[in-house]
Write a structure and sequence with these properties.
With about 325 residues, the chain is α/β, with parallel strands linked by helices. The chain has helices at about 5-25, 30-40, 55-65, 80-85, 120-135, 170, 185-195, 210-220, 225-240, 250-255, 260-275, 285-290, 290-295, 305-310, 315-325, and strands at about 45-50, 70-75, 85-90, 100-105, 110-115, 135-140, 140-145, 150-155, 175-180, 255, 300. The chain folds into two domains: about 1-80 and about 110-220, P-loop containing nucleotide triphosphate hydrolases (Rossmann fold), CATH 3.40.50; about 225-328, Orthogonal Bundle (Helicase, Ruva Protein, domain 3), CATH 1.10.8. Helix 1 packs across helix 2 (about 30-40). The model has no long low-confidence stretch (mean pLDDT about 85).
């Protein structure tokens, strides 16, 4: 654990990153906070929103501010695993001899934007899944580790579903957060036009390096969490399960499967990252409540009745937060 003075310096560095992001990204304050929370907790993000809302610009700006190696992958139905992981190619030396040389794919980066991830086939999604979970890539019997930090930010369009492949539940569960982007307000849209249609645009400056980020990620795991707060996170996750002894009426009626244990882990780690972002040194009940929706909304699976009646998972989770007490 770092000393308090050094932690204070890094908390200020993170705030500087946030400030610089807001100079380029209009609005999206909550999304920026949640992306930074996931990044500091070393977790991947699934972003859901229509095209043109600034998802790519957000990732590019973040990579500039943190001096991270950035790659963007446009997922399409014909994208093959080797297109993202890399492959062995035949090379010829000066004497005419041939040998295999590995050519790395775009996954060998620090920050990867997987654009329209649900347009790729299951085989390509599985290759991404290994990289997300294991932080390594296996090609031709050789496993190659990915340099830390490794962060995947995937997008999917919630409207256009033709020609898409649903993400397997196992892959969705690997995402730390699922975030929903809303359309900008009138004032925000006017500000976007002012910033993007003039002669000058803001150039982001590096405010933090890779080593600082990695040290912060390690320090966040040491943020104290009281047993009562851990128990609260566990009870929220258990309350999402229709198989529990006394589920709520809503969960019993509409939910097929509740959150996995990864959901509880995400709640606690995100709570630690949020406490760090706000300059505090311990996790509160409010931190857990604040990160519940992005941590769990993609880990709740509706049953047929829930899907038929178009139930809102966010509403179900909000109801759980109202009925699960902080202390049993």
């Amino acid at each position: 654990m770092m000393d308090n003075e050094r932690i204070g310096d890094y908390q200020q560095a993170v705030q500087d990153v946030k400030t610089e992001l807001q100079k380029t990204i209009v609005g999206m304050e909550t999304i920026i906070d949640q992306v930074l929370t996931a990044l500091l907790a070393n977790g991947h993000v699934l972003l859901e929103g229509v095209p043109g809302l600034g998802k790519t610009l957000l990732v590019q700006t973040l990579s500039d501010l943190l001096a991270l190696d950035y790659r963007r992958i446009q997922f399409t139905p014909d994208l093959m695993p080797a297109d993202i992981t890399g492959t062995n190619i035949i090379m010829e030396d000066e004497h005419g001899g041939r040998f295999f040389q590995f050519q790395a794919g775009p996954l060998f980066a620090n920050l990867v934007l997987a654009d329209e991830i649900n347009r790729a086939t299951a085989k390509t999604q599985a290759a991404l899944l290994e990289a997300m979970q294991e932080r390594s890539i296996s090609v031709a019997g050789t496993t190659r580790p990915l340099d830390p930090p490794f962060f995947v930010m995937a997008t999917q369009n919630p409207i256009e579903m033709e020609g898409t492949y649903s993400l397997p539940e196992a892959q969705i569960d690997r995402f730390f957060f699922k975030l929903k982007l809303d359309y900008p307000t009138l004032s925000e849209l006017n500000e976007i036009l002012l910033r993007t249609t003039g002669e000058r645009q803001h150039q982001s400056q590096q405010t933090m390096g890779k080593e600082q980020l990695l040290e912060i990620q390690r320090a966040i795991r040491s943020v104290p969490t009281a047993d009562e707060v851990l128990d609260y996170a566990a009870r929220i996750v258990l309350a999402s399960q229709p198989q529990q002894e006394k589920p709520s009426d809503t969960v019993k009626q509409y939910v097929r499967y509740g959150s996995s244990p990864r959901g509880a882990q995400a709640l606690v780690l995100a709570g630690k990252a949020r406490a760090f972002l706000e300059g505090r040194f311990s996790v509160s009940f409010a931190d857990i409540r604040h990160v519940t929706l992005p941590s769990l909304r993609h880990r709740i699976l509706l049953n047929l009745e829930g899907e038929a009646s178009n139930q809102d998972i966010d509403r179900i989770l909000t109801e759980l937060l109202e009925i699960v007490p902080e202390t049993p």
